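hey so u asked for the seq, here:
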Amino acid sequence: MTQTLVAYNIGNYLLDCLYDYGVKHIFGIPGDYILQFDKLIEQHKIKYINATSENSAGNMADAYGRLRGLGVVCITYGVGINISNALAQAYAESSPLVVISGAPNLSEYDKGQKLHHLLNKNSILHQMDTTQLEIFSHFTIDQAILTSAEEAKTQIDRVLWSCQKHKKPVYIEIPRGMALATLPQIVHEQETSQNLASFQSTPTSRAIALHPILEQIKHLLQKSEKPVIWAGHEILRYHLSSALIAFAAQNQIPIASTLLGKTVINEDHPLSLGVYQGKMSRSEVRDTVEKGDCLLMLGGILSDVDTGIYTTELNHQHKIFATAAEIVIDGQSYFGLDFADFIQALAETAQLAAPERRTIGIVGDGAFQMTATELSTAARYKLDPIMIVLNNQGYGTERPLLEGEYNDIHNWNYSFLPKLLNCGVGIKVSTEDAFDTAFKAALTQRGQFHLIEVELDKTDFSPALNRFLSFVNGTKTNDRTAEMVMPNN
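ran it, C-alpha cells below
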C-alpha cells in the first residue's frame, strides 16, 4: 500500500514529534516572536493552554510532564526568561520539560536594529543575541536554535530524545519565520515516530550488562534477612512505580520513600513505610530502614532535605545504589546502564498505565498569592481542581527560623476568590470537622474548581515541619511532638 507523502514545515514536524511522545497539551504565553508557531498549534491536534504568566506556564508543563512523560511550554523571546524559576525546578527535580521559544530572525539581526525584548549587546556587530540561550543552558540538558531547515529535523530529534532519555529540560529556539520553513526532504506521515524510534535504537543495557548485576543482587537478597527499599523521585520520572512495587511484592521487601519521591507508592499499601528522612522520620520508619541488613537505594539524589539534613544512618552490611547516572553495589560502580531497564528487569513485569485523577492542591497562603491567577486558567478550561489554602498569615516555614515582619503578608479573603473569577466554589473553615465536611462535598461535586481556605494560627506547625526545623536550627525536637504525626507523614 502506497503511503501518502507530505511536505513538512519545521513547526508541524516539531508538533507531530511531540504528539508522538504523548503530548496532548502545550502551555504558554503568546508573543510576537512565537505567534507563527502558536498559530500552528491552534491548527494541530495538540491543544494550546494559555496561562497568566510564563513561570506559571512552566510550572504547569512541569507537572504535566511528571504525570504524562513530557511537558511542553511555549514562550516568546526576552520576557520569556521569566520562566527561569520553573525551569530550574524542573532541572533540579529531573522533570522532562521542553521549552520552545520564538526569537528574532537572522535578517533582523543583520540590520543591526535595537530589537524589543532583547539586551541587544551584539546589535552593533550584527550578531545573533544568545542571552536567553546562555541563561537557559544552565537549566537544560540540551539546546538547539533552528536557523537551518537542512539541520532542523536532526536537531529536533536529538533534543527531544535527550529530554526523554535524561528526564531533564531542553530548549528549542525558533527564529521568526522558521516555523513555516519547509524541510528539504519529503516525509511520510508516519515517519516522525519512526525517526524517533531509529534515533533511540541502540543495544539495550539489559542484554549487555544487566544479567551479572541482577545475579549479584539476587545473591545479596538471598543472604539478607531484613532487606529494605528506599525509593526516590527518579522512580516517578521514569514511570517505574508499578515495576518497583511488583519487585517488592514478589520479594516482600518494605518500601520507604524520600521526601521528593513521596508518591512512589500508595501509603495505604501494606509494604509502604512512609517517608524516611533520617532523624526527621517517625521512629518506626527509622527502625525498619536503619536496622535492615540490605538497603536498596533506588532513584534518589540524597540531598540535604531527603537525608534529613544528613542525619541518615545507613550502616547496612550490603548497599545497592541505583540512579539514572550509575549503579553501585557494595562499592563497585557500573556506568552507562539504562535505569529504566534495570528497574524493569528487577520486576520482570510491564508498567501499568496511570488512571485519570482529579487534582488536589495543598498550598500555603504566601505561595498562593504568587500563583492565584491560575485559577482563572482552571475556570477558562473548565477544570475542577480542589485547592486547599493553608492560611497562617505569612511564610510559615521561614517564621520559626527567624521571626520578622518580612514573614507577614496581607491577609486575603481567599474563599471569596471564586466570586471575583465568576466561577468555582469557595469556603472558609476553621475546624477539623468543618474541613472534613467541605472536602467530602468538594469530592462529590465535579465541573468547577473548589477552594477551601483553612484558617490556622501563625504558630500552627506540623510535626514533620517541627522535626525539620529543629535540625535546621540545631535544636532537638520534643519527643512527644515528634510522635504526634499523621500515619506515613
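The chain has a mean pLDDT of 84. The chain has 19 helices and 19 strands.
lmk if thats what u needed
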